[in-house]
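ok trying again, last paste got cut off:
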Amino acid sequence: MNETPKPQIQPEPAPPVDDERKSAVTDNIVQLGQAAVPAAESNIFCLTIIGQVEGHMMLPPQNKTTKYEHVIPQLVAAEQNPKVEGLLLVLNTVGGDVEAGLAIAEMVASLSKPKVAVVLGGGHSIGVPIAVSADYTFIAETATMTIHPIRLNGLIIGVPQTFEYLEKMQERVVRFVTGHSNISEALFKDLMFRTGELTRDIGTNVIGMEAVRHGLIDAVGGIGEAIRELNRRIAEKKAERPEGVGAV
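nice, full thing came through this time. structure:
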């Protein structure tokens, strides 16, 4: 008896290269809002702090957030990667969780590689310590930074220990900012507790050159100035390195 021949399964044809390119372009438009993405090969690692710094509590999905548990591994990887020679920190943030913001600021400050920060739009509240954690800082001419005391949302137990805790946390912020910028502690606290400038709060909103005059930020500038300064510092660090050390 003759066996019935089995039908042969034809392999599916590979999608044309043009279709793959169209799919990649479509993904870029959907995800990034642009048709082409510049090549990412660079000796500079760019870290963005945008929206609200999210800490131990998750924020609603409609909030634009920077999650500290995402930022910390990136900073560790940048420190360990020999191809990364400098960090560019870009801020446009309203602030957020105090301890998460301080954790990010401490990690940036402790990196052994040159780091430059630029405040675009805003670097408010806990964004101030993150901004000054870099070796050199820029602020856009129209960017703002709000300096105000630490607040707690929700139920607060009205006992002396609660207010002592708040005061100690606030001192941590003051000590970090004054230790990583040229502003004095007296001036920073004066800006923090000033009345009459913010509608429903105490504090101060400083804009561009005003932040530079106070010594909070080093210079007025944008991305171009920040990258030039970072490249200059990277070149200086290379020149200081003994010959043969760090060569791949």
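cool. The longest helix spans residues 160-179. Helices lie at 17-32, 68-80, 98-110, 127-132, 160-179, 185-192, 209-213, 223-240.
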